[in-house]
Amino acid sequence: MSKKPKKGTAKEKTKPRQKKTGPKAEGPRIGVFVCQCGSNIASIIDVGALTKYAQTLPNVVHAENLSYPCSRQGQEDIVAAIKNNKLDRVVVAGCSPRLYEPTFQSCVSRAELNPWLFEMANIREFTSYCNQTAPEEANEKAKDTVRMAVAKARLLEPLKPIELPITKKVMVIGGGIAGINAALDLADMGFKVYMVEKSETIGGVMALLDKTFPTLDCSICIEGPKMVDVGRHPNIEIISYADVLKVEGYVGNFNVKIRKNPRYVTAANCTGCGECRDACPIEYPNYADMYLGARKAISIPFGQAVPLTHTINRDYCIECYKCVDACGAREAINFDQKPEEIDVNVGAIVVTVGYSMYDPKDLTWTGYGKFSNVFTAMEFERLILAAGPTGGKVIRASDAQKPHSVAFMQCVGSRDINKYEYCSGFCCMYTLKHSVMLKEKYRDAIDVYVFYNDMRSNFKGYEEFFNRAQKSGVKFIRVKLENRKITEDPQTKNLTVCAETEDGKPVSVHAEMVVLANAAIQAPGTAELAKILNIPLDKDGFFIECQPKIRPTDTEVSGIFLAGACQGLKDIPYSVAQGSAAAAQAASVLGKNTWTVEPLVARVNEDLCSGCRVCESACGYHAIKVEKAGDKAVAKVTEGLCRGCGICSSACPMDAVTMPNYSDCQIVAQIQAVMKKGSRKT
Amino acid sequence: MPFQTLKRDTAKELCLEWVMQVKNYKLNLDKNRCVGCQICNLACPKEAISIEKQPKTFGEKTRKAKVDVDIAKCNFCGICDISCPYGAISVTVDGKHLLSVLDKESFPQLIRDVKADASKFPVDPDKSENVCPLNLIKAQYSTPEGKLVEDPRSLSRSELNALRMKVEVDKEHCPCCGICEAKLPQGAMHVRRMFSGKLAIKRENCPEGCTDCLDVCPITGALYLSDSDKKVHENEMFCVYCGACKIVCPVDNALDFKRTRIHHTTVRSGAWNKALERLTSPTDMTKELKAKRSLRARESVKKRMGLKEEQHV
Predict the structure, then answer these.
(1) Which of A50, A157, A350, A637 is the most exposed place for a label (fewest CB within 10 A)?
(2) Identity of the residue in B2, B269, B270 whose CB atom sits nearest the CB atom of A291
(3) Which domain holds residue B240?
């Protein structure tokens, strides 16, 4: 039906085609469709000449050029041409197969042709784009490319897609705010969710914060109910105090090995009453309080912990068993607990392991660790928190007095090419939050200074919050990031902050307390997890997403998704949004009954295979393994894991492994086609 | 301010510290009082305390072993403080000497049963104060009018006899050797041992001329050099069973030493059982547990039968 607009070109083609069909009626019937791609291709390549050239190639029974074959009209033209000319092979000469191969495959299948009888010749990225200054050569190259594609197409074989079953369960690694949202979304959709958390409680960094910017909502008051929802949700199983040891399998069928570390408390029996904690005589520094305060050797890190199971820290416990007496008939305490390894089968994994904070002790100019009244932002967060170790009193470490002046120092470690080149993203905003809280709490009784270089307040409501800080009387001092120094008066323990303004003038301020906005960095254990999951990390130690703009939550491994700060530093609303985005992505896998894999995976000829295991060591994806089959050991391919890279095929000394549609004879045919040079001189 | 662990080791003291903004834990080892015995090393539940024999210099007395505390293992529980017979270790929380392990009955208080009766003390200061090998007895003299006498030695015999005496014993640092009880008039001092045990020197195994154990023993009289065989002999009457001698003894089989019982308040604690096992022996620990068990059984029988103490008798 769509033949009309193409009549002119069709006429030209019919003649040579009829010429060719006669003698070559026996062989495959190949159709070549040359794309103009607007002017992207046609401005360099003489599309008409290329079409005519294609008609001269053996087995080509039909060739035409189309302005946009990928458009709806273009696809209909291809379908019609296949039907009218009884084509059984299709070559599209156009752009990269990475972009449009799936489109054309579905197009040819609509014409009842097997989608793997389709071949793409890239004359855009490979020729018109990169040879703009040499159009003549580009045209020759385009002919070579088409000739190769036709040579391969001649030998293409029909394949059947591989269908893999899908386990309708999902694992969320990391129980911070991003993970909590991903887990709740997925559980509400009806999928079973395993939430694996490294520490004793879920909640992540957000659970340790006092307020959130720019609304100054209490952090735990808005996260706490969500944590409880996770704990209570019938579809969510929290596996806390656990490490991911190994991930095997592929999308739809991951097998995750997890080590549950011993809490020495049976979770099922622990009611969280805290009587054991009261009986315990031993204390140790509490990480949840940034070590400003202590916790008991049997305790929970903070009151809102989920699960509310106590944990014994055996590094400090003296084994007096007072907790056992206190627990009594509940019998929750078990000193014989051992690490337990469990295997969990899931269809998809969402990674939300978050971030941690850089310890600025090695930046000597800050005096952190040396001067007692220099704090990091997280320490300040625990100081100002009402449930914190000081009961919400902002006091100095040297004399436990309220400071009359506080200086905030931005970009400590971040935006520093010697430390962390990137911007940590949320420090400007939390410093504004801290300064506004101080100023609104103590009014004129406190002077607040912010030493900053650039104020990054670029999201909804943030700039307004910056204005609020300025109006509340916080003094902002714009300084260079170089030549900053903090010094201490050894008598009074007061501090002097020295810096240089943008125009090089020295500026110094006396402050009784200094708070550093230290860089946020990858969470501990991220590198190990990256290896386990086979997902690369970027130079800063954050997980690399599949495509930064349009696939920010996908990874290179299908079925594994990213959310939150482990992909790149982000604040709470964006972590929440990304958590839900990753949940939707995971649901798009879990919602299917089977996962379709391209059949371009390695095939083993068991008669030829000697079981030498060369392929096994060559494979980067653990997709090929030698297994016993009857009386003989032969290589077996796990189709879900195979990426079709072909390394095993080239490594095999027996030529037992072949790649469908990338077989030796197909590749040789292409090489021969390009070496023939056809009309090309030389 | 970040969490800090500090360690300072000087000739006088070893000081360990956990500095948190709102809490401060401190362990202080007074090297003058420390005799380099085994007790803290054995009592420590975290195996944080090590004892190192000091190299011997020819012609000099053997030096006591050096005690070191590993700050990475120490949890400032204070068990070493409680156990030290010489009171050389002090653990404080925020400057206060209040130990949670005692409070929560996770560890017993070792009982220093030392009582002084000033009325039976000789009025002569040379005879009263100097009997203690560790100088822990202080006597105060006042006139019948209540005036403090600074130097009683300058007074005449009759004036002396009229003086009133007050005796203070620094119990915290007392290992309960009982020398005072033996040397002072009967009834002036009452001392019950904190540790009981056995010490026997197998002199046939002693290296020729070795006095290492005697050199380090802090209790004058517990060990002595015999004029007859020029070897060290023991006087178990005064031994406090601290084990300082055992640490420095150069041979394995010369000192037959063990502790069998420790005088302490009753507690029910795994930490104590383990410490007791290490300080005495598994057998002695079992003995104590058995005694405790039978005591408990008696209590529970009494409770069940609703018997009162009088009825039972």
Answers:
(1) A157
(2) B2
(3) 195-262
**Contacts A316 to B, Cβ<8 Å:** 46, 75
- Asked if B136 and B186 sit in the same domain, the reply is yes
Task: Note whether B104 contacts A280, CB cutoff 8 Å.
Answer: yes
**Domains of chain A, with CATH numbers?**
4-159 (3.40.50), 163-261+339-354+524-592 (3.50.50.60), 262-337 (no CATH), 359-521 (3.50.50.60), 598-660 (3.30.70.3270)
Contacts of A569 (CB under 8 A, 6+ apart): A355, A422, A424, A425, A426, A520, A542
Tens of pLDDT, residue by residue over A108-164, are 999 999 999 999 999 999 999 999 899 999 999 999 999 999 999 999 999 999 999
From CA A604, how far away is CA A634, in angstroms rounded? 8
Question: B92 in a domain, yes or no?
Answer: yes
In degrees rounded to 5, what are phi and psi of residue A23?
Answer: -70, -25
Contacts of B294 (CB under 8 A, 6+ apart): none
pLDDT, tens only, A311-339:
999 999 999 999 999 999 999 999 999 99
B258/B205 same-domain check: yes
Q: Is the residue at B267 inside a domain?
A: no
Interface probe, candidates B4, B5, B6, B22, chain A, greatest A C-beta count within 10 A: B22
Q: Is A291 within 8 Å of chain B by CB?
A: yes
Question: Is the domain of B13 the same as that of B86?
Answer: yes
CB contact under 8 Å between B3 and A283, yes or no, is no
Contact (Cβ atoms closer than 8 angstroms) between residue B66 and residue B77: no
Tokens of A411: 């970009």
Residues B17 and B78 in one domain: yes
Alpha carbons B254 and A146: distance in angstroms, whole number: 98
Amino acid symbol at A520:
A
Q: What is the pTM of this model?
A: 0.84
Q: Is residue B269 part of a domain?
A: no
Tokens for A614, please give them: 């060369």
Give the domain CATH number at B135: 3.30.70.20
B-chain residues near A293 (CB < 8 A): 20-23
B3 contacts in A (CB within 8 Å)?
Answer: 285, 290-292
Q: What is the dihedral angle through the alpha carbons of A209, A213, A217, A222, rounded to the nearest 10 degrees?
A: -60
A391 touches chain B (CB under 8 A): no
Q: How many domains does chain B contain in total?
A: 4
